[in-house]
Amino acid sequence: MTFTQMLNGVSQGQSTMLCIGLDPEPSKFPGAWKGDADRIFDFCAAIVDATKDVVCAFKPQIAYFAAHRAEDQLERLMAYIKRNAPQVPVILDAKRGDIGSTAEQYAREAFTRYQADAVTLSPFMGFDSIEPYLAYSDKGLILLCRTSNPGGSDLQAQRLADGSLLYEHVARLASGPWNRSGQLGLVVGATFPAELTRVRELAPTLPLLVPGVGAQGGDAAATVKAAARPGGALIVNSSRAVLYASNGDDFATAARAVARQTQLSLNAALSGSSKGAA
């Protein structure tokens, strides 16, 4: 089953657009686990167990593991999700952006070592930077397009010779000549709803991974209104707001409550948007 098939299946089957970012910070762990990097797997596995039926994807950010020499725990976590939530695709948030043989090794890392279903990539070295990943025909490649950080405008909002903006050009390439096998998606921040609408216009059927809802201030209803369209999957990510909903022993229960509320808020926004369109 391809990444897109998995994503569509779980999104419909569990009625959810919510993705949980697994960004483990030991300094924020609860109780006796606080500050203990050896508990990264345990913390993330508890979050997975508590939320696996309300999400359409999990998104571990590789830097949070590598910084603590916890790549082995990331491998264990990926395998754990495959066993215990096999319906839920896993997006490795790595934002790789190299070319040639180096990109081949990054692809092998993501898809062979970690067994990810999709990976985030930076496309700003051109098609060469994504081509090696296309060899893994069942995997998803999610390209940075209009990111949620304010500094993204430094490059992504620059106007090109043809009058379009750089992020618009990326969206056109991803939905057109680069998408040779239907494997591509785009990262577009919830903090820029107008740009999110524009990307959806340019890429009506591509999966959109939307960070920025929750701790970064993105609005769930505005995100859904901007980007939810038939035939184009929406993956709305929340990380800190879910992971650190409580610093007590009830952290997993609290995480589930926030995740469930976010899921319901997104679904309510989708229902309201559909009624408005009608």
Describe the structure.
This protein has 278 residues and is an alpha/beta fold. It has a single domain (3-277), classed as TIM Barrel (Alpha-Beta Barrel). The protein has 11 helices and 8 strands. It has helices at 3-13, 40-51, 62-66, 71-84, 100-113, 153-156, 166-175, 193-202, 220-227, 240-243, 251-277; strands at residues 18-22, 57-60, 91-96, 118-121, 140-146, 184-188, 208-210, 234-238. The protein has an 8-stranded parallel sheet. Helix 9 (220-227) crosses helix 11 (251-277).
Distance between the termini: 34 Å
Q: What are the low-pLDDT stretches, counting only 5+ consecutive residues below 50? A: 274-278
Quick one: CATH class?
Answer: Alpha Beta
Order of helices and strands: HEHEHHEHEEHHEHEHEHH
Largest beta-sheet details: 8 strands, parallel
Helical fraction equals 40-55%
Q: How many DSSP E strands? A: 8
* Beta-strand residue fraction: 5-15%
Q: What is this structure, in a nutshell?
A:
By secondary structure, the chain is of the alpha/beta class. It has helices at 3-13, 40-51, 62-66, 71-84, 100-113, 153-156, 166-175, 193-202, 220-227, 240-243, 251-277, and strands spanning 18-22, 57-60, 91-96, 118-121, 140-146, 184-188, 208-210, 234-238.
From the structure above, extract its key features.
single chain, 278 residues, alpha/beta, TIM Barrel, eight-stranded parallel β-sheet, 8 strands, 14% strand
Strand and helix layout:
Layout: H1 3-13, E1 18-22, H2 40-51, E2 57-60, H3 62-66, H4 71-84, E3 91-96, H5 100-113, E4 118-121, E5 140-146, H6 153-156, H7 166-175, E6 184-188, H8 193-202, E7 208-210, H9 220-227, E8 234-238, H10 240-243, H11 251-277
Parallel strand pairs: 1-2, 1-8, 3-4, 4-5, 5-6, 6-7, 7-8
